[in-house]
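Example 3.2
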Amino acid sequence: MRSEAPHRVVVTGMGAISSIGIGTAEFLTGLRSGRSAVRPITAFDTEGFAHAMGCEVTGFAPEDHIRNVPLRTLGRAGQFSVSAARMAVEDAGLEEADLRARRGLAAIGTTDGEARDMDRLVETEVLKGPEAMDPVVAERVTAGRLSSAVARELGLRSVEAVTLPTACAAGNYAIGYGYDAIRSGDVDYALCGGADALCRKTFTGFYRIGTIAPEKCRPFDKDRQGILTGEGAGVLVLENLESARARGARIHAEVLGFALNCDAHHPVAPDEDSVADCMRLALENAGVGPGDVDFISAHGTGTRANDVTEAAAVRRVFGADTAPRTISMKSMLGHSMGAASALASIGCVLAIVEGFIPPTINHVETDPECGLDCVPNEAVAAKPRVVQNNGLAFGGNNAVLILGTYEEEQTWHG
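Structure, written as tokens:
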């Protein structure tokens, strides 16, 4: 039965697979040091492209994390998703038996699902005919496996498994979905985040519209040239506060609120009014004011249009002279598509817990049209209490998450 009073929602576990580090400890080190993951793409044949740099995950061994689901039945994105979920559950100190006995949710956001496998199947069909396509690979293409495989790996029973395909904001969409489900009492815990693997389809699409940078991703810099595609997964364990306290869990941070909107203004161009509205709604939902936010993790893709539009929306909501520091983790780990805002959420939690603000690397001179302090090149020591994480996707799918330090007596709504 649902509780009449809304539950507080806390983060008790995190799992990160990224191009700057596997596991939250390595991910933290990468963020603090301003590590760059850029290297020539090896995931697919890049012949014919004038430039093909990206941010691939290296050193990933799925067998180190996946115990129950046959690896052959999972594509690379699925392996990322399940492995990050396993890491998050272990970080939360949860036993599989405990999860099976409670009502849960597995929500994974994605842009491409297993498009990397689809690329492979199409190539096989073109070169050798459909009869040569691997049926096991064909079977694992379904995007729904990114969440259902998490449930299978952990043997979950009373669980909803949902995959949210809301492009580059999908990780925040999934976290928001988990937040709502826990806050309302529908579930006791949620494993939520995002996962994507580098694929030729998406790289080529961005390349054809002229938004792939030749060498570096330089968000908010006056000479920025675009994105670099990346990959990875981020999964968080969310619980209601009562559950976390009852089992003596370590609480990393609290989810204070979030907001979603979809303006459908343009297939790819962001809309300033809509982005600003989403940020205002998120602050209102969290019960905090613009002056409470200590830094913003921007969507920050490094394209001409996104950075100017997002920066203008930030200045509109927070004030041109009072906007908080606004950073882009994509400068380090590339644009990991559906995993992007999930990994950024983990980065925000780590910043709160460890006391710092990650940098925006590759920065030379801030674009006057952006006009924000993007913490250029080096992390700064700080004690952030409230952090905003922006996820802005094609089609006007915006998702803004507000995270804060966990305090026994919540003050934000009072």
